[in-house]
Amino acid sequence: MPETSTENAAVAKFALIIVCLGSIIGPMGMASVNIAIPDLASDLQANAKMVSWLPTLFILSSVIFMLPASKLADNYGRKRIYAYGLTLNAFSSLMCGLGTSIEWVLFWRFVQGAASAMIFGPGIAIITSVTPSHKRGAALGIAAACIYVGLTVAPAVGGWLTELWGWRSVFLFQVPIVIALLLLIKMRLSGEWKNDKKTQYDWWGTFIFAVFASSLVYGLSIIYNSLGLVLLGLSAISLALFILHQSRSRRPLIRVQMFRENRLFSMSLTTSLFMYASNFPLIFLMSLYLQYVKGLSPSHAGQVILVQALSMAIMAPLSGRLADRFQPRVLTTLGCVIVACGLLVLSCMNTQTSVTYITSSFLLIGIGFGLFSTPNNNAIMGAAKSHEVGAASASMNLARTIGNLLGMSLVNLMVHFYLGNAQFTPEQNPILIKTVEMALNMSLAFVVVACVISVLRGKSKSD
């Protein structure tokens, strides 16, 4: 079945369409929430500390469930797990929209993160399974562009919905869209893609990894006291145990030897981790800055932020085609340099900075990130062996989500330390600005590290 489906151009094309539609819906639901946070915080009387957990818990759950979801997809079918993820996403979105307390919304945001892991990991694996190797870069570029399309429209959609119907509509609007996509999969997408032989599931490895991620996130948020240091120590020990367990397991969630055997694979993943660590918290904080400090409406703030994702969406397919012809490290390094320039420009802003200046900075960051992402993804998937595309896909998505988690956890620390239990009021604006400045400097440092690693990664197999 997998081989026949791979050779069938019509099925491959429709599978790409399905994955791309999911790649639009998922990021749209995730990123649009950032614009609605001020309205949500006001309605549910949520303080700064609780609000900062909204994106963090989503990413934490995605990290915890990314490997299990991809492993289950390899065993039981990538299309099946992908569809289950869409279903769970619709249900958790509905529950968030019905929330009457910040604790309720936070719980279902965590569930949403698990659904996201079930969508993105198997989705990329489906594309890799049905697309010939010489067309993989272009296909991954289209998929990446769709993610950026979702991110592009998310701020504007989130802003408009919040102004018209309130923050609940930001969660509820995606439910009928996901249901329509599920019906489309049921009726039109034939075939299934999975490994020929099933392997037993590693529940112990999943538990160790969950302990690592959870203790890292919470430990970073309270690092200024002794419990935080204890949790960070537990996180380091758990990570070491996870690597040791995976290297010795007969049924690992991910074959850690892949990282030692292939320099291009491991360094491309590391580059991805630092780049995403630099970008994710930026959107969260700039949404707060534009609405609280600059006084923009939700829709206006969304239009400013969408410039970054729009430029990503334009660059992603172009860089995908270039990735099929040129060395990945040349394109990715250039992308890193452009992002660094954008962050450097943005770091010079203050309370008097014009919206045009901020928009221009977002444009530069988006161009660089669009140029970086697809060639880097193509390098990762191209470096993997054919029977390990599922593991490579999981690794790529894991690097992205761990990067997001690392960056957001450090911003969480800043918010908890400087704002704590305070409500967002004009009196807190100077502290909010200070937090944004620190986050921008952190993001710039991450991009510089990514640029160095990108240069050192080496050439791809094709050359």
From TrEMBL:
Task: Give all residue intervals belonging to the Major facilitator superfamily (MFS) profile domain.
Answer: 15-462
Stored InterPro entries? MFS, MFS_dom, MFS_trans_sf, Sugar_transporter_CS
Q: Does the keyword Membrane apply?
A: yes
Keyword set for this entry?
A: Membrane, Transmembrane, Transmembrane helix, Transport
Keyword check for Transmembrane: yes
Q: How does it sit in the membrane?
A: Multi-pass membrane protein
Q: Where are the transmembrane segments?
A: 12-30, 50-69, 81-100, 106-127, 139-161, 167-189, 201-220, 226-244, 264-289, 301-318, 330-349, 355-372, 402-419, 439-456
Listed GO CC annotations:
membrane
Concerning Gene3D superfamilies, the annotation shows: MFS general substrate transporter like domains, Multidrug resistance protein D
| GO MF annotations in UniProt | transmembrane transporter activity
Compartments in which it is found: Membrane
Q: Which SUPFAM superfamilies match?
A: MFS general substrate transporter
Superkingdom of the organism of origin = Bacteria
> What is the name of the protein in this document?
Transporter major facilitator superfamily MFS_1
